[in-house]
Structure formats: structure tokens, C-alpha cells
Amino acid sequence: xxxxxIRIEPRGLVLEVARGAELADPLAAxxxxxxxxxxxECGGCRVRVVEGELPAAEEDLALLGPERVAAGxxxxxxxxxxxxxxxxxEEWRHPILGDETPFAFTPREGAGIAVDVGTTTxxxxxxxxxxxxxxxxxxxxxxxxxxxxxxxxRIEAAxxxxxxxxxxxxxxxxxxxxxxxxxxxxxxxxxxxxxxGNTAMHHLFGGLDVAPLTAYPFETPRPDALHWQADALGxxxxxxxxxxxxxxLGGFVGSDVLAGLRAIGLDRAALxxxxxxxxxxxxxxxxxxxxxxxxxxxxxxxxxxARISCGMRAAAGAISAVxxxxxxxxxxxxxxxxxRGICGSGLVDAVARGLEVGRIEPxxxxxxxxxxxxxxxxxxxxxxxxxxxxxxxxxxxxxxxLLSARAGTQPRLLARLSLAGAFGNYVSxxxxxxxxxxxxxxxxxASAGNAALLGAKLALFDDELEQRALRQRIVHVPLAAxxxxxxxxxxxxxxxEEEP
Length: 500
Prior knowledge:
Layout: E1 3-9, E2 13-18, E3 21-22, H1 24-29, E4 46-52, H2 58-70, E5 73-75, E6 80-81, E7 85-89, E8 111-117, E9 121-128, E10 134-141, H3 151-159, H4 164-183, E11 190-196, H5 199-206, E12 226-229, E13 242-245, H6 255-263, E14 273-278, E15 282-288, E16 291-297, E17 318-325, E18 328-333, E19 341-342, H7 344-356, E20 372-374, E21 380-382, H8 383-406, E22 416-420, H9 421-426, H10 429-434, E23 445-447, H11 451-461, H12 468-471, E24 474-476, H13 485-493
Parallel strand pairs: 1-7, 8-11, 11-13, 14-22, 16-24, 17-19, 22-23
Antiparallel strand pairs: 1-2, 3-6, 4-5, 4-7, 8-9, 9-10, 12-13, 14-15, 15-16, 17-18, 20-21
Helix pairs in contact: 6-11, 8-13
């Protein structure tokens, strides 16, 4: 079978593939995300043909329109390599949040690795257990994104036989090997590897049945820590190391939240405090004294730019912030140059500014009969985009309200609200408050960094997070079963009429 060459710009990478082959898999391997799992439903994997020809598919015309198709735009998940071509890929790669926070520890011998297995990104750090120093860092986009940007798409793909377990195990093994090489550590010194992630990542990495997560009550009978020797995972170079994936808390609330609340000291808070873990999935914890309440919210991936008509990751060309000048929206574009899309922080900013200047009504409708909210460089938010944000923020806001009520308090009375997760660290606190994500006073709201990764590092020195004592203090609350949830969610969908 003859081969064709596909050149990818701006990286200058050349792929050789069989003539007529689908490009979805090789492009996904190079960092092009397929947010809907490659079903041709979202338009998020746009690429542009700058030389040669890639035939347009029906989905290209339906989602991109004839003008964009004529200009060379295609969906990566529908491309077939019929001839040599050069394509320009909208960069989806972006900085991945690590952690350099100092922490107290009891020295141990050897080295350890902490891994935050996120839905979107993976970050791993090699730690000297004698000094606590971070010796090396490795990051990557989660290769499971080939099967969808959100958890439910991946769970569905796993149920259909997609190799999500092998994909993430192989990728984490590669990060481990890279850490040892760049850190100058012999594999015999590696004593322990601790992984954290949400329940779906925990189960997909562990090869557990994810079917219980597909239907109400979204609970699983296997929330406990998972243990292996490294060679059982196909990592023979570090066969002596113990590998542990920390336990889940219930539903979609995983060990990343358990590790995070320990890292920020929420389990030791004397006054009512809370943590939002904002990413592809959303989790909330509210603590008061000895009791902590946690829940997951079906926020969807809107906060990371997915399912938004012009959405993208926080990469070069993304609108990451929006301000107003004389009543006009002015966008900040990462890396300068023309805007190619909008990421989560820009989306929240744009809606907050739209509310301030009267372009968006408190109910979420575009004012004055407008059909779009113009941004910059031909980009605009649609009414559907604003509804997607309302759904995401409403799910989280109602979760915070209901858990606070369980703890005998209200969000505005919290002594502290910590924003964890990638989105939580980059979103404007002022804009998040303006759209009604929370009404806690801003002087009590702070970014928490990558709390999950810090908690995983703490677990390299102390196995308390594996034990049941802390988990027995935490109550998992299925939000949809809470009295008054439907009415509270409908109320939380709206935007505050004015600055809280």
C-alpha cells in the first residue's frame, strides 16, 4: 500500500501514513484533542489545509459551514490522507499546573514519584524522600482524550472496548521513565509511586468496571486504594517500586479531592471552609470541625473551553481574559496575535463583562434581540455557549449551597474558599463571583495551586490517606437526591442582577 506525507505546522512535524488512512489517531497522538471522542459532533478538532488536499466530509460542511471548508478548514477526526498535504493545527497544548509548595515531612530513604492523573492533563514529580526536593517534573496531555474530553465519553468508550486502561498505564509509565532519566535516579532507588485522580481515572487506570458510574446513583463498590508492584503494570525498569492509587470518596469524588483537602488543611480547619476543585469535572468539599461533606457536580467541560462554539484550551491564540473599555469588550489573547478561540477563563470573563455592560440579561439571554456576543477577530459567543456556562456554574453553585447547608452555614459565611484544579487557578475570582459561582467575599477566596499533586507528595511520606480514619469523617452527598435540588439548581442557573 502506498504512503503519503502529512506535514503538521507550526511544529514542522511530518507523519507518514497509508494512503486513505484516517488521521484521527496519529493526530491525537501528537496532541490534537478530539473533544467528542472523534464522533464529528463538536467541531473542536479543527485543522486547516494550507497545501495539498484533504477531502471534506459531510460533518465538515455541517459543523464548519461551506465558507470555512472552502478556506481549508477540516475536522481532524474526519480527515483521510488521500494525498500529500500540509495542515495547520490549532495548538491545544498549554502549560500544565505543577506544584512547588514547601511542606513538612519525616525523611525517608530513596525516592518517590507523585502523579496527578487528571482527565485532561498528567503531571508527575520525582521527589527525594530524604530532603523533600523535587528532582524532576514531567507533564503531558492525557492520551485518553482520543476517546473524548469528558468523563462520560471515556466511560462509554471503555464500555465499548476502547483500550483506556492500557493507554493511561503506558503513558504514566513513560512519565516515570522520563523522570528517572532527567532526575539522574537509578530505578533501584525508587521506593514508592503515588497516583491520585477522580473516580473514573482511578477505575480506568485500575482496569475496574466503570458501568456503575453510568447510571444513578453513580456509586461504585470499589472505592479503595489500589496497589501493585511496578512490573505488574508493564514498567519492568522499576519493578521493585510499590505503586498505589489512593482511594476515592464516593461517586465521582476521587482521590484527587482527598489528597487536595489534606494538602490545604481543610481536614484541620477550625472554622467552616470549603474547596472547589474546578476542571473537566467539578468537586466540592465543605468542612466544619470533625465533619466534611463532599460532592461532585456535573459541570461538564465548559470551564476548559470544550462544548463552546469557539472554545479551545488555554494555548497560544486563546482569549484568556476580557475587559471593557468605554462599554466595548476588549480581549487579551495568549501569545498575542489574532484570536483563534476562547478558553475557560476568557469565557467566564466575557460573560461577566457582558453582564456589567448590559449585553447579557440576568436570566442568561442575550440582550436586545442579539444572537451573538461579539468578541474579537470574528469570534463570538452564541446563546448556546452562554447556556453551557450557566449549566456548569449552576451545578457547582448549587453544590456549594447544599453542602454548606449540611454544614450549618452558607457560602457567604465561609471563613475560606480554596479554588483548586487547573481552571480554579487561572479564572478571575472577581468574574467567577460576578456570574454567581459563589458569593463568598473575595478576601476569603484564594487559589490553591495543584493541591491534588501536593497531597500525592504528602502521601509519599505518610500513608494516612490510605487509611480509613480520615475518610470516615467525610460524607459523600449525592446532590440530585438532596431535598429541593431541582429548584435550587434552576435558581443557581441565573446570574446575579448586580455585583454580589
